[in-house]
């Protein structure tokens, strides 16, 4: 709606803001936190299958071994690692460090890069130990 009175500024909206790394990481921290709730359902499903008997457990293991299952588990791993690193970043801020704009931006970028690299390392180690 147009500002017909010209006495007050229009409220800013998403087209006004330029996404910056700290803003994007803040949003991703919230998204990964929400995704962890669904990942907890995966863990509960696996535990229920393990306690229900070999047949059901084998079916759940088969599903998690499919391409879709592995993509879900990979995404869950990334969400877990990303949220953990974001939590460490927030802990650093809670202690009063890292508020400088350049350092905060570097930390946000490191959070994304670190979460991707750690997820890949976890999966490589998991496959190496598995065989």
From TrEMBL:
One of its GO terms (molecular function) is metal ion binding. SUPFAM superfamilies: Fumarate reductase respiratory complex transmembrane subunits. The gene is sdhC. InterPro entries: SQR/QFR_C/D (IPR034804), Succ_DH_cyt_bsu_CS (IPR018495), Succ_DH_cytb556 (IPR014314), SuccDH_FuR_B_TM-su (IPR000701). It is found in: Membrane. It is a multi-pass membrane protein. It comes from Ciceribacter ferrooxidans. Its cofactor is heme. One of its GO terms (biological process) is tricarboxylic acid cycle. The chain crosses the membrane at residues 27-48, 60-81, 110-129. The lineage of its organism: Bacteria, Pseudomonadati, Pseudomonadota, Alphaproteobacteria, Hyphomicrobiales. This is Succinate dehydrogenase cytochrome b556 subunit. Membrane-anchoring subunit of succinate dehydrogenase (SDH). It comes from the Bacteria. Heme binds at residue 83. Keywords: Heme, Iron, Membrane, Metal-binding, Transmembrane, Transmembrane helix.
